[in-house]
């Protein structure tokens, strides 16, 4: 019986997820009647369906008959794995004979066992292609049959290391059974690991001689790229760069009436100047965008573009395809609502009236931007569109462009967030922003680890929509804490510009909206001045991204484990990279007010350590080396850092 196989997403309806080079654990419950020994393996096949070398499985838990192996796909695309199990007569024979010898069963009583062993060895000799191995096996079989030898000498060759080596190379198999094949979609490594930086190109124009903000362009935005690259970011995420509607345009701070110079919300897409396949003329043209993408790539980063499937009232689609929207009883087109909130500057799409026409157009738009160098799409509010639409679009795109990634911005109910991840989204925004206590973080990140076969978290510390209360009230130290948590808990994390400047003024008490939100106005920032004055988190962000690149363990989600700490204000967790033996232990102060000292009690089994073992670890933040054991005292002084990071290699 082969049962309870993992990874298996929704009973196999959707493929599990992995990236190239990721070590993917495969588990199954395997059992048979009686006491005969079993063996099992995982056979992994690439997209050509050509099997790779089978990986032996190990019995991970005798009590539950749970078997385990690790497979490592080495190229992108759709892979399949199946589990093969069989009765292992050689191990059964060795186990039985060894047990009987241990209680002094004599040769006459073992006669049948000895002949059974000789017959098994004969079978192996007949299958062997090596003359030396055949001779070795035949001598062992002859010894088992030689009644003139003492019992200990008769069994010695058969139970010896040389025979075990030869048999292990091609062990006999009986009653072989296989599971059904199961799929794993393998992405490029950026799908799992990356540091994102979000900024508005239109805010990069600086100020004129009168102190007024000047609309930025792709050319002025390029000037920010060196700073972003120096901080160690991998992905430059741009909010919508398309023409912005003028009908019902919102003013500053979401005012219902815009002043003549108000720039409007980038998410109110479309005007007489074009729609989703056009560039806002004040940013430049498509040639300027192409130059921007080229510069991003030169700096070893890549562009992520917002895909927001909604329209301003003056979007060309409204005029040419009114059937793609919802018409109200009075004949007007319905604008977006989330009662009591209303969004008169946005028309939601209706996917029911002309699904094929609308699908074809959106596929065309996505392909247009792919052809202009975009390989990552951050999808706005995907939970408000039909799931079958996303499933069809994502997998059709991947058929031609398997390297394209989709991030779901779905701050919604868990079933929907998980469902979108299962049906094809590469990454997902999460509830990390609202998980602030030690218990909340531990429980939620453990849940994310358990979901690693289908959901890859992207932990953004802030967004243009979300300024959490802990940042509003916690001051600069809390910004450092949230950055440390996001950057080390998840392989992928993100920062919205202004975070490094500690921007934390809410629109009103109790609101998560920013005062003077960049969604509705230009926000030029003086990053270099703040850095000179020591009023910037940029050095800490740079250090966190350095650590992420230096330590393969921090690129891993599946191995995240939490450890006990005697101070409830401290949280401790570790990650391990099985391939390199890289281990990282992080201890973060969730309430950095004054120095703290506490005992960290390591889960030694999770780290592959014996209970009494000590390791010499590099102290990545304070410098030098430290000795860590099962119980270690750790001190954190917020004047130096809000976190400690210790790293070592096991081999």
Quick synopsis:
This protein is an alpha/beta fold and 651 residues long. The chain contains 15 helices and 30 strands. The strands form 6 sheets. An 8-stranded parallel beta barrel has the order 11-12-13-18-19-20-21-22. Strands 28-27-30-25-24-23-26-29 form an 8-stranded antiparallel β-sheet.
Q: What features would you highlight for this structure?
A:
elongated, 8-stranded parallel beta barrel, TIM Barrel, alpha/beta, 651 residues, 4 domains, Immunoglobulin-like
Q: What report would you give on this structure?
A:
- The two termini are 37 Å apart.
- An 8-stranded parallel beta barrel has the order 11-12-13-18-19-20-21-22. Strands 28-27-30-25-24-23-26-29 form an 8-stranded antiparallel β-sheet.
- Helices cover 29% and strands 24% of the residues.
- Helix 1 packs antiparallel against helix 2.
- The chain is elongated and about 110 Å long.
- It has 651 residues and is α/β, with parallel strands linked by helices.
- It folds into 4 domains: 2-88 and 177-187, Immunoglobulins (Immunoglobulin-like, Sandwich); 90-172, Methane Monooxygenase Hydroxylase, Chain G, domain 1; 191-241 and 279-309 and 357-550, TIM Barrel (Alpha-Beta Barrel); 554-649, Sandwich (Immunoglobulin-like).
- The model has no long low-confidence stretch (mean pLDDT 96).
- The protein is built from 15 helices and 30 strands.
- It catalyses: alpha-maltose 1-phosphate + [(1->4)-alpha-D-glucosyl](n) = [(1->4)-alpha-D-glucosyl](n+2) + phosphate.
- The record marks 465 as: Transition state stabilizer.
């Amino acid at each position: 019986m082969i049962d309870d196989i993992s990874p298996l997403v929704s009973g196999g309806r959707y493929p599990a997820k992995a990236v190239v080079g990721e070590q993917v654990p495969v588990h199954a419950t395997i059992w048979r009647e009686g006491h005969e020994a079993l063996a099992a393996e995982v056979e992994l096949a690439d997209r050509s369906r050509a099997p790779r070398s089978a990986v032996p499985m190990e019995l991970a838990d005798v009590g539950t008959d749970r078997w385990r192996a690790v497979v490592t796909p080495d190229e992108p695309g759709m892979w399949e794995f199946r589990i093969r199990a069989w009765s292992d007569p050689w191990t059964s024979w060795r186990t039985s004979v060894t047990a009987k010898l241990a209680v002094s069963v004599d040769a006459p009583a073992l006669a049948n066992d000895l002949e059974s062993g000789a017959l098994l060895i004969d079978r192996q000799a007949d299958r062997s292609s090596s003359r030396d191995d055949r001779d070795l096996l035949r001598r062992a079989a002859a010894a088992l049959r030689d009644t003139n030898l003492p019992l200990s000498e008769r069994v010695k060759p058969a139970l010896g290391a040389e025979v075990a080596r030869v048999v292990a190379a091609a062990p006999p198999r009986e009653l072989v059974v296989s599971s059904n094949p199961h799929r794993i979609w393998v992405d490029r490594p950026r799908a799992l690991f990356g540091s994102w930086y979000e900024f508005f190109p239109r805010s990069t124009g600086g100020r004129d001689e009168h102190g007024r903000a000047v609309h930025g362009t792709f050319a002025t935005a390029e000037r920010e790229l060196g700073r972003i690259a120096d901080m160690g970011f991998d992905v430059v995420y741009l909010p919508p760069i398309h023409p912005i509607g003028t009908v019902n345009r919102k003013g500053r701070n979401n005012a219902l009436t815009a002043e003549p110079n108000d720039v409007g919300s980038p998410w109110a897409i479309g005007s007489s100047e074009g729609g989703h396949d056009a560039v806002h003329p004040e940013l430049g043209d498509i040639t300027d965008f192409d130059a921007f993408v080229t510069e991003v790539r030169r700096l070893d980063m890549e562009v992520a573009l917002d895909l927001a499937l909604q329209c301003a009232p003056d979007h060309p689609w409204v005029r040419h395809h009114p059937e793609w929207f919802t018409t109200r009883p009075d004949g007007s087109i319905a604008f977006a609502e989330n009662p009591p909130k209303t969004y008169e500057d946005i028309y939601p799409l209706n996917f029911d009236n002309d699904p094929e026409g609308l699908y074809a157009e959106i596929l065309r738009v996505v392909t247009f931007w792919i052809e202009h160098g975009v390989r990552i799409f951050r999808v706005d509010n995907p939970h408000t569109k039909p799931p079958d639409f996303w499933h069809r679009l994502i997998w059709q795109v991947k058929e031609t462009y398997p390297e394209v990634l989709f991030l779901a911005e779905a701050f919604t109910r868990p079933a929907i967030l998980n469902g979108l991840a299962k049906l094809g989204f590469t990454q997902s925004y999460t509830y990390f922003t609202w998980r602030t206590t030690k218990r909340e973080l531990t429980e939620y990140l453990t849940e994310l680890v358990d979901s690693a076969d289908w959901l890859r978290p992207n932990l953004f510390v802030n967004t243009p929509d979300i300024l959490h209360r802990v940042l509003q009230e916690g001051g600069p130290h809390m910004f450092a804490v949230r950055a440390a948590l996001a950057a080390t808990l998840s392989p992928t994390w993100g920062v919205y510009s202004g975070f490094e400047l500690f921007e934390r003024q809410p629109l009103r008490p109790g609101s998560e909206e920013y005062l003077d939100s960049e969604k509705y106005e230009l926000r030029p920032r003086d990053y270099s001045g703040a850095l000179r004055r020591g009023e910037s988190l940029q050095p800490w962000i740079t250090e966190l991204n350095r650590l992420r690149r230096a330590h393969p363990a921090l690129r891993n989600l599946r191995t995240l484990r939490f450890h006990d700490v005697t101070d409830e204000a401290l949280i401790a967790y570790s990650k391990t990279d099985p391939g390199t033996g890289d281990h990282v232990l992080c201890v973060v102060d969730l309430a950095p007010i004054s120095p703290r000292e506490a005992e960290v009690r390591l889960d030694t089994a999770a780290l592959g350590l014996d209970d009494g073992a000590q390791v010499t670890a590099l102290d990545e933040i304070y410098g030098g080396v430290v000795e860590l054991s099962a119980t270690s005292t750790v001190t954190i002084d917020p004047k130096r850092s809000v976190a400690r990071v210790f790293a070592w290699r096991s081999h």
